TrEMBL record:
Gene3D superfamilies: 3.30.56.10, Bira Bifunctional Protein, Domain 2, Ferrodoxin-fold anticodon-binding domain, Nucleic acid-binding proteins, Phenylalanyl-trna Synthetase, Chain B, domain 3. Belongs to the phenylalanyl-tRNA synthetase beta subunit family. Type 1 subfamily. Residues 743-836 form the FDX-ACB domain. This is Phenylalanine--tRNA ligase beta subunit. It is found in: Cytoplasm. Tetramer of two alpha and two beta subunits.
């Protein structure tokens, strides 16, 4: 909200020497955030001049200039060159003398041009910052002004004013007006506040509006939102015999511009001026273009309305419109219609000021993508008591500035609900803020914001003012007491943190998993949970076919309308983005939830609870059951080189081994060892895919993407991925982790080569060796896989390095050999393994 300081002074006593910074500081003390300071950026000397003569002089370039003699209130007239032709001798204009600086900045100096020394510049409205009109010189007679030559034009046109801009929070819609800001300045400084709605002349005019009858208005809203009518207050009145071509006075233009609204035409400007002044939007119709009376109703589905911005709107049955006897003439509370727009030929004006339902207005604004200054105020709540006063103020200004007569005909209806009485117990404010407020401070602060306060046996009964719909309970009243008395009174006390890190076991282990992967050189990323249906079908299940998934009702991107069932699509999107920017070596991981609806279960709920009350446990339970399971997963992706080429070191490409390394690393960190088996996944290379198990359960897959799929996704041929169910790993992990003691006895090492069928997985053979060798076996690893000469067809020779150690003695070679032979015997009995000779 931009607030011209001269306008603010009309309603509150701002000291004459107060700077915009002082005003900002005062408003910040009562919770309004400062934004900016706005001025016209113009400095003098800029004066009124009267044209004595204007001699046209054609130039060689085809242009004709005027060599003017202008009286600027000095002993001698000034010679000025001007290229405009919409003025002549006798006209009074605005002259920028040498030394002046116009908005731009555009410094003015005496300079030689077209064979003359131009001693200043005759200015247009655009050059003065008063608007976009640049068709010619600003003639003061067009503004109804006749000042003497030499008069300070900056003060005359209101260009010496400044405006402070503050950020208004959504719950304080009353501050979108000079009236509201003036009250806040008074609350901050104690300066005398003069409520414009209490001005005797306006009180009398508002009473006349409420008593006016005869103009036909029908409220026919047959689809109220949550039982609330779309329109609760409606005021209408007529001004006849106006001159629609009269220009807006410069003081009003200047104030509107400082407030951030451009001047359009006098009658429209008056409506905007009163909206800024009182916070109540209004609308003016050309009465001659309205057929019959007005009807407030819901639009019919598909009905059309061309709004003032020239765009045709296709209306919804939820839109509230103001219509005449045949068609809509305005989108209620948002924007008027072009068919009844005010023009220079308008002679009779119908003025409307109403109170519209905030929810209805907000939905129409978003439906039509049509924000407006009026809608911004209606969405936050407008004072219902200001409707008749605002209409009266608009009509009075039209009659004063555009001529005409206020007609006795009109309409008024008030069905607004009075503010509820709130009980504020004694001591409640102190219990919330920790400040021992006195009774005078509580009643004084609540009275200052406009509330009616009565003492009771237990505290106070408070009736909020009509312009504060945000005050609904004792807590919001306490906020006002704290704000008006001063936030500096609220003590700063840090709460005592409970012992421990305050994390659950699963949270702690998830953080450990992320920390381990990051420490291992992977980069954590966060991706959007919205993916395409095809991505879910590829990665949501190991077998081909449709995967149960949740589809969004209102997706931001129609191509990504499904909730992810896997983290891999997000990693692929991140990799593609980085590859397109030249980053070719990537090791990425993500921890996040996936959405796994159970087949045949219907999710979602249309019965959302109201946002103004705490939902019951039953309602919360129903909402939880309407959401599909969302387990935590962890996934990683590798592209490019794991080790870059460097002197003495060849590049090492990343691949399946890196993906399996992530699985083993997570199994170690979470104390839930992961075993690897050859497996199948529809999106992965059939010969380079592994099934990951923990505790006998499948917890994920690792592998390299199908080359054809990688090509389709614009990725390199080798892309290694791994994804595990983190929730399962956390559940399976041991809660007690003990460190292995450092061995004090030497180890005995032996190699073992077994010949088995090619169908026997190496991982299964490792498990048999560990089981057969017993507790003396400390470590075993596969070091060679040979298939060729000397090995029967369909078989393979697997060589394992084995390390044996005892905790209480030095092993002999015979003991190590005995343990190895036991492993061979078990492998032979289970899978037909034989020792290679």
């Amino acid at each position: 909200m931009r607030v011209p300081i001269s306008w603010l002074r009309e309603f509150v006593d701002v000291p004459a020497d107060a700077t915009p910074e002082d005003v900002h500081a005062a408003l910040v003390r009562v919770g309004l955030e400062e934004e900016d300071i706005h001025t016209f950026e113009i400095t003098g000397p800029v004066v009124v001049g009267q044209v004595i003569s204007a001699e046209p002089e054609p130039q060689s370039n085809g242009k004709t200039i005027n060599w003017c003699q202008v009286d600027v209130g000095e002993a001698e007239p000034r010679g000025i060159v001007c290229g405009a032709h919409n003025f002549g001798p006798g006209d009074k204009v605005v002259v920028s003398l040498p030394g002046a600086v116009l908005p731009g900045p555009f410094p003015i100096s005496a300079r030689k041009t077209y064979g003359h020394v131009s001693d200043g510049m005759i200015a247009s409205a655009r050059e003065l910052g008063l608007g976009d009109e640049h068709s010619g010189i600003l003639r003061l007679a067009d503004l109804g002004l006749d000042p003497a030559p030499g008069t300070d034009a900056i003060a005359l046109l209101g260009l010496d004013d400044a405006a402070v801009e503050v950020n208004v929070t959504p719950d304080r819609g009353y501050a979108f007006s000079i009236r509201g800001i003036a009250r806040e300045y008074s609350n901050s400084t104690g300066a005398a506040f003069r409520d414009p709605l209490l001005d005797p002349a306006l009180v009398e005019a508002a009473a006349a509006r409420r008593a006016a009858t005869g103009y036909p208005v029908t409220l026919a809203d047959d689809a109220p939102v949550r039982g609330r009518p779309g329109c609760s207050v409606f005021t209408a009145g007529v001004v006849r015999g106006v001159d629609g071509s009269v220009p807006t006075p410069p003081w009003m233009v200047a104030r509107l511009l400082l407030a951030g609204i451009r001047s359009i035409s006098l009658i429209v400007d008056i409506s905007n001026y009163v909206m800024l002044e009182l916070g109540q939007p209004s609308h003016a119709y050309d009465l001659a273009k309205v057929s019959g009376g007005l009807v407030v109703r819901r639009a019919t589905e598909g009905e059309r309305l061309t709004t003032l911005d020239g765009k045709e709107r296709i209306l919804s049955a939820e839109d509230l419109v103001v219509a005449d006897e045949s068609v809509p003439v305005g989108l209620a509370g948002v924007m008027g219609g072009a068919d009844t727009e005010i023009s220079d030929t308008t002679t009779d004006v119908l003025v409307e000021a109403a109170i519209w339902d905030p929810v209805t207005i907000s939905r129409s604004v978003r439906r039509h993508k049509l924000p407006s200054e009026a809608a911004k105020r209606y969405e936050r709540g407008v004072d219902p008591a200001a409707s008749s006063a605002a209409a009266a103020r608009v009509m009075a200004l039209i009659a004063e500035l555009a001529g005409g007569t206020i007609d006795a005909q009109g309409y008024y209806l008030d069905e607004s609900v009075p503010p509820p009485v709130i009980e504020l117990p004694e001591g409640f404010a102190q219990s919330i803020t920790g400040v021992a407020y006195s009774a005078d401070e509580i009643t004084g602060s609540l009275t200052a914001i406009g509330a009616a306060v009565e003492s009771t046996a237990t505290g106070w009964s408070v009736t909020p003012p009509t312009w504060r719909p945000d005050l609904t309970d004792r807590w919001t009243l306490t906020e006002e007491v704290a704000r008006i008395v001063g936030y500096d009174r609220v003590p700063s006390e840090l709460p005592v943190a409970p012992p421990g890190r305050g994390l659950s076991r699963s949270q702690r282990l998830r953080r450990s998993a992320a920390g381990a992967l990051a420490a291992g050189g992977l980069t954590e990323v966060l991706s959007y949970p919205f993916v395409s249906e095809q991505s879910n079908d590829w990665f949501g299940a190991p077998e081909a076919g449709p995967v149960p998934a949740m589809k969004l009702a209102n997706p931001i991107d129609p191509d990504a309308a499904w909730m992810r069932t896997s983290l891999i699509p997000g990693l692929i999107a991140t990799a593609r983005r980085n590859l397109s920017r030249g980053l070719t070596d990537l090791a990425l991981f993500e921890l996040g939830t996936v959405f796994r609806p159970e087949p045949g279960v219907q999710y979602g709920s249309d019965a959302l609870p109201a946002g103004d009350s705490l939902p019951s446990e039953e309602v919360l339970g129903a909402l939880r059951s309407s959401i599909p399971p969302q387990p935590w997963h962890v996934a990683a992706l590798f592209v490019g080189d794991a080790v870059r080429k460097q002197p003495g070191q060849a590049a090492v490409a990343s691949g399946l081994a890196d993906a399996l390394g992530v699985a083993h690393q997570l199994g170690t960190v979470l104390s839930s060892p992961v075993t690897v088996e050859a497996g199948h996944h529809q999106a992965m290379h059939p010969g380079r895919t592994a099934v990951l198990r923990a505790g006998g359960r499948v917890v994920g897959y690792a592998g390299e993407l199908l080359p054809a799929l990688a090509l389709e996704l614009d990725l390199p041929r080798v892309v290694a991925v791994v994804e595990l169910d983190l929730d399962v790993l956390v559940d399976l992990g041991s809660t007690e982790i003990s460190a292995a003691p450092i061995a004090s006895f030497p180890a005995a090492t032996q190699d073992l080569t077994l010949v088995v069928s090619e169908s026997v997985p190496a991982g299964e053979l490792v498990s048999l060796i560990v089981e057969g060798a017993g507790e003396l076996l400390e470590h075993v690893t596969l070091i060679d896989d040979y298939r060729g000469t000397g090995i029967p067809d369909g078989s393979k020779a697997l060589t394992f390095a084995m390390r044996f150690r005892a905790t209480d003695r030095t092993l002999t070679a015979a003991e190590a050999t005995e343990a190895k032979n036991a492993a061979v015997a078990l492998a032979a009995s289970r899978v037909g393994a034989t020792l290679r000779e």
